[in-house]
Design a protein that fits this description.
This protein is an all-alpha fold. The protein is built from 3 helices and no strands.
């Protein structure tokens, strides 16, 4: 697969398009779009070896029956 094709798909995805729409636009499968995105962007992301000791969890409002928050 051409590197330019992979770059075009990745740029399209980074700009907010989803895999299905991007794949349709480039006449390929969603799986191919995902694979191109992973290959191009994997070198840009650092692997996380250890999570922080504290992780913040926010409550959000929604349909929780009789409860105020989820």
């Amino acid at each position: 697969m051409l590197i330019d094709f992979k770059k075009l798909i990745s740029i399209e995805l980074i700009q907010g398009k989803n895999f299905k729409d991007t794949a349709f636009r480039f006449q390929t499968s969603s799986t191919t779009a995902i694979r191109c995105f992973v290959e191009i962007t994997s070198s840009m992301v650092d692997e996380v070896k250890e999570l922080p000791k504290v992780i913040e969890i926010d409550e959000y409002k929604g349909d929780a029956g009789n409860e105020e928050y989820h």
